Amino acid sequence: MPGPLLAVIVGLATCQLGLYLTTVVLHRALSHRSLTLTRRPLFAARVLIWVSTGIKPREWVAVHRKHHAFTDVDGDPHSPAVSGFFTVQFANVVLYKKSANDPDTVGRYAKDLPPDGWDRALFDRGWLGLGIGTGILFLVFWGNWHLVVIAAAVHVGTYLLASSAINAIGHRFGKRPFTGQATNNQWLAWLVAGEGLHSNHHAAPTSARLSFSSREIDPGWWVVLALRRLGWARVRHDELHLRPQAVPAAAAR
Which residues contact residue 96 at a Cβ distance below 8 angstroms, ignoring those fewer than 6 apart? Predict the structure, then answer.
């Protein structure tokens, strides 16, 4: 296989790893407590998040919870209804960092995730995690720097664009089975580990499963099922718990 093509494939694969870690661990487990991971798998996930994204989990959780507290109104960190579609799609990382760097946001919305010794020693140093991740790519490609750069660029670019699309596309285009601006896009769900079923998520944020019917597919749920079968995760509830404010769009007409 030609070197550049292999680098692109590795970049896309690491992007998918980051997206699955984001949806299962940062989103479903930590932000909404829809599942609980046992100690060792959770620690392994923290390491993988660190080296693949450099994200501080408590910051990600705080920004996401604020998004739910101010969905599509002033105060939402990354809503296309507030900031505009193109800003959210192509500059979401700027919006995210602005909110994540606000100590009031983290202090209010991530009180249950105080930094521990591992955070202070390693995981709060995102630059170090990304440096180690780049070093792993260096070993994979035997020191061929141009392939490392290609793989890293593909990973970073696709991860940022895909993550942004969940909010940009997921609050602008698609089906709205429930009232509100959030939408469902099955094609997007395939690309971002189920997160494209965004209207469903806003209707039932504590559900570990984002697909509500046999016609909807949530790839992230397959990972949750595997973790549960291995005894590494406990799902909060299997039955669907809709928010009181979640009204099916058909009933609202």
Answer: 63, 77, 78
Give the closest residue to 30 by CA, choosing from 71, 59, 68, 67. Answer: 59
The DSSP string of 133-166 is HHHHHHHHTTT-HHHHHHHHHHHHHHHHHHHHHH
Contact 197, 210 (CB under 8 A): yes
Average model confidence (pLDDT) across the chain: 95
How far apart, in Å, are the Cα atoms of 226 and each of 17, 18, 24, 52, 218? 15, 18, 12, 22, 13
Model confidence pLDDT, tens digit, residues 190-239: 999 999 999 999 999 999 999 999 999 999 999 999 999 999 999 999 99
DSSP three-state, residue 36: strand
Whether the per-residue pLDDT at 4 is higher than 80: the answer is yes
Tokens in use for 135? 């070093």
The DSSP bridge pattern shows strands 233-235 and 35-37 to be: antiparallel
3-state secondary structure of 15: helix
Place of tokens 């989990």: 57
Separation in Å, CA 87 to CA 82, 83, 242: 10, 6, 31
The residues near 131 (Cβ < 8 Å, ≥ 6 apart) are: none
